[in-house]
Task: structure prediction
Amino acid sequence: IEMDAIRVLIIDDHPLIRLGIARSLEGMTHISVAGMCADLVATRDWLAKDANGKLAILDRGLPDGDGRELVPALKMAGMKVIGLTAEDDAGRVRKAIEAGVDGYLFKSSGIAQIGHAVDAVCRDAGAFPPQVMHKLYRADGQENPLAQLSSREREVAKCVADGLSNKGIGSKLNLSVNTVRNHVANIMQKFNLHNRVQVASLVLRNQRV
Result:
């Protein structure tokens, strides 16, 4: 494992799911498992004692409560959060995005998909199943809020929805990383958003096909 490996906390009440994700991650030289928790109490104890992690993979259906309750504490500990679900449930994904998760994974995801999601979220790029997002957010005929953005901000927002990092957006649009970062911050401020997944969902909800 590299010295600066991405340390991941796995939160799921099913031992086989935890073990499967851990085995997948441990096969990658730049990722290590920081810990595994089965419920809210164990996770809060881990945060109080250790909190040495960069990212959490979080199941919502925990035996002692809704996994979404942990998102603020994980964020306070400086961790990114990837939501985990067993099914293509539009309502669950929407609520997870509203709670502030940085990405989303299906429990059926393969090793490569898990690694890609971890890497993408740590690069500040979105990681979520496109088929779910497009099904979730269909244009509804109301006034398009994206009209509040400048043409450049709309370009940047579209790139965020495509899962590009700030560096990737800069390369595509010939902008500096700082300029891209400022555009993303302005977009979030205009719509009171808190992360890139929420920006992406706004674009997918309102883009006209």
The chain has a mean pLDDT of 83. Residues 137 and 205 are 4 Å apart (CA to CA).
